Amino acid sequence: MSTLLDVENLWVRFPTRNGVFDAVRGISFTLGRERLGIVGESGSGKSMTGRSILRLIRAPGVVEADHISLEGQDLLQLSEKEMREVRGKRISMVMQDPKFSLNPVMTIGDQIMEAYRLHSKASKSEAYAKSIEMLEAVSIRDPERVMRAYPHEMSGGMGQRIMIAMMLIPNPEILIADEPTSALDVSVQRQVLDIMDKLVRERGMGLIFISHDLNLVADFCDRVLIMYAGRVVEVCEADKLHEAKHPYTRGLLNSLPRLDAPRDHLEVLQRDPAWSEAPSVSGRS
Ligand SMILES: Nc1ncnc2c1ncn2[C@@H]1O[C@H](COP(=O)(O)OP(=O)(O)O)[C@@H](O)[C@H]1O
Ligand SMILES: [Mg+2]
């Protein structure tokens, strides 16, 4: 499988009053033209991993790695100007909270068209047509009205779908989707997953799908990295996730409600300090 992204020994550090806090601790993985899931409980370093690929960690946070290579080119060596060319065009990211990513004083239509025209020489009418097409693709009804609306007029789920449409218009090689469907109801969630799936299958896009929902990831992804305390504790084929061996992964699976085997109470995850001390498992394929 051709490698799109190669991340080696990634650390994300935050200086604090009590010393340096390592949010991501030396993880390595590759991404091909596949759906790679990253799962783990809240605070395990999933979002920081996604953001560090695009060098979007805010100061005083620091990203360090042996390399973060996009088709052989180390992103850490690029200037900020060169990095802006990568963001949105070659690698797009749908952030966990879309409300903060949309400009409140610009109509949805102007924002989508601006995002598109930033990276292509399309005319205004082409950009408009493409925007309508993408809004329809993410199941937005009445896209003409949505184009004229402002972000505050949208529900959370609509905001999330608009962000996804916006991120996909420039046809990126890699999409990093951080909990992209968590605000959506089940039927819309399925539609959004289908769109991303189609882009992976038909255009060979690489997808990093961040989620805390193990069942969803087992169902949707090809391969899964399981993160705990900034490290990758286990890597497995998504369809083998339910056979995972690491006690943390087993614990996450056992603490999920299951429709086929309802229980009176859900197990509480017992943590072992050894999990966070063990070296990261490699997610290279
Ligand atoms: N600005 C910051 N300063 C210190 N720690 C931070 C900062 N931002 C995030 N963190 C910490 O980094 C860790 C990983 O966060 P994150 O990647 O957002 O987790 P996840 O997405 O898996 O829930 C968390 O423990 C969080 O508290
Ligand atoms: Mg997160």
Automatic annotation (TrEMBL):
Residue ranges constituting the ABC transporter domain according to the UniProt record: 5-254
Pfam families in the record: ABC_tran, oligo_HPY
Domain of life: Bacteria
Membrane topology: Peripheral membrane protein
Keyword Magnesium: no
Gene Ontology biological-process annotations: peptide transport; transmembrane transport
GO molecular function: ATP binding; ATP hydrolysis activity
Classification via CDD domains: ABC_NikE_OppD_transporters
Keyword field contains Membrane: yes
Keywords carried by this UniProt record: ATP-binding, Cell membrane, Membrane, Nucleotide-binding, Transport
SMART domains: AAA (SM00382)
CC annotations in GO: plasma membrane
Primary site of residence: membrane
Location in the cell: Cell inner membrane
InterPro entries reported in the protein's UniProt record: AAA+_ATPase, ABC_Ni/Peptide_Import, ABC_transporter-like_ATP-bd, Oligopep_ABC_C, P-loop_NTPase
Family to which the UniProt record says this protein belongs: Belongs to the ABC transporter superfamily.
The protein's name in its UniProt record: Peptide/nickel transport system ATP-binding protein
